[in-house]
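Fold sample X.
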Amino acid sequence: MKEIRLTGFCRRLLFLLAICAGMAGLFFTYIPQELIRAFLFVFCAVLIIGAVLWTVWQRCLLSDFSNDVCETVDTLMEGRELENFSPYEETAFSKVQEKLLQYYEKMKEEQQESAQDKQTIQELVSDISHQVKTPTANIQMIAGILSQHELSREKQKEFLNLMAVQINKLDFLMQSLIKMSRLETGTFVLHPEECRLKDTIAQAMSTVLAKAEKKNIQLSADCDSKLTVKHDPKWTAEAIGNILDNAVKYTPEGGSITVSVRPWQFYTRIDINDTGIGIDEENYNAIFQRFYRAQEVAAEEGVGLGLYLARGIITRQNGYITVKSKKGSGSTFSVFLLS
């Protein structure tokens, strides 16, 4: 059998019960029956009245407690500050009040996030509709011309080529939007692995090689063939390729673009230097925003998502991108990857 251990409180209670039992035995032994009956009647009456008064008091306390809780809830619902909030009091009401306040703060944060998400979606829809409008209108116009006019074979071919350009632009926009959506919702998964950085840079440069040759822009890279960095080669090549695409786009004919890699203590630095038109210092942060296009480059092809995607991809690998530029003297984009 298990040993039964009595706490100090239980021992005191048993001791008091024993004393009461002893006094009751003496009381009923030496006191006359009439006095005992009178005493029991008075005792029962006092006990009943006490019970009634205790019940009324408890109901009053419960009513006051519920009123205070309701007042607290009303105050929070109206967005007003709590006047009688005492977080350091060890009372039941203060504990309930503190939990209600915590719940209110959490709901307020979720409401703010929901409103911010709603605004972001509205802005995104507005940006997408604005970007899609121009190529769609051009395609509709060209299709109307081809269907309503008798044109020569050469003219038809010319308009079909123009339509193909607009369709490609629309397809590029859709692909960029899909990548952006996957980036923002976190549905794409990075697969970092220890691999040669030179191969990733070569893959990125291959995506802009044709455009660079068309503008007679010299491409060069300086990277140790044995240097390895833990990164996702596919998405990192996408990010570097987007930066290179911008460099080719805004570098005049006959310019040059160089990619150089330098290992640091904690990061590996990839510098992409061009001899392009340059960027104003006040626009350093703006160029990484979604759909941003500076006024002076509005005529160039693009939708303003390349650098936005590049920063998102590198950031999700615990890296970062910086830029230094001087108007008219080219730019240097530096990509930092954890070594």
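Fold sample Y, listed below.
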Amino acid sequence: MNILHVYRTYFPDTQGGLEETVRQICLNTAPFGVKHRIFTLSQKPDPAILQFPEAEVYRFPLSFEIASCGFSIAGVIGFKKLVEWADLIHYHFPWPYEDLLHFLCNVQKPTLVSYQSDIIRQQGLLKIYSPLQYLFLSSVTKIITTSPNYLQSSHVLTTLNRDIEIIPNGLDEKGYSSLSFKKREYVRERFSSDYFLFIGVLRYYKGLQYLLDAARDAAFTVLIAGSGPMEQELKDQARRLGLKNVKFLGYVEDDEKIALIQDARAIVFPSCERSEAFGITLLEGAMFAKPLITAEIGTGTTYINRDRETGLVVVPKDPVSLRAAMEILYFNKGFAMRMGVGARKRFELLFTGQEMGRKYVKVYRDLLHRDELV
């Protein structure tokens, strides 16, 4: 069974939650005899083909971007050749360029869309793109989204008038590198323990400006791991507020990330816009039995994190609410540990990579079998 994944960026060019989701789907379906290739764009596609454990990655040169949406002229021919290899095309939405590829190359094979997020910020361009979006989503064989929360709150999904399956994103615990004693000691020497930890790309919708406000004059430490377009703006804000208890770590390698999670009091994830559809960092925290803090934005963040079961849910864009939640977990260690145990139980129940892999393999087989019957 040959599956072609289509997504706008991938490792090593970018390192985000959706890239990790694609990787986890590939890794956890491979034991069932599934082979994967990934179509993506790169500013420097040299080499053009990368061989990773999960898949062959085919990178095509980025020709231009419109509102962060990449396009590739050479990619059209490359995509058509990859479609010939594939039994099924697995699109990861949104990426308007993939909609165009689908129609330009007249794809006739079974098609699956993993609907990761609505388009939130580019509302002006969305008016232009919307007819193509609905035409594309209406034409694919099947649509999957990652949580019942997102299915219920997405205007796009609720107006499509078709059955949509829910498959939560998952993580394979075995795929995480084992933690060395030296790395954990290194992290403890730098930061001690019981800090609040954020991991992710520093983007507008992550709500980090509210996290900085919430940390002002606090008794606890906040570590922010990651880089991104808002990095300098956030550092400037921290400087204005005189935040000595907030540290920006920049990009961290996987082994350091694991060490940071293991010594954290909690994972704080204050994303405040629906652009945050799920939150792989929350799964990583839950996997390591850490309590979670999220804002209620009607997406998968509060499907992973259930208030007072796995952590605390706060009002979005509200530093006072966020500060109160952090103080509850910081000054009540027993409660924080119970929330961490709850997070781990929910991870084992819903979010393992193996469970996600089984569900995707079933969908792949059903779509291919349906195609054979037509």
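Sample Y note: The chain is about 45% helix and 20% strand.
Also: The chain has a mean pLDDT of 94.
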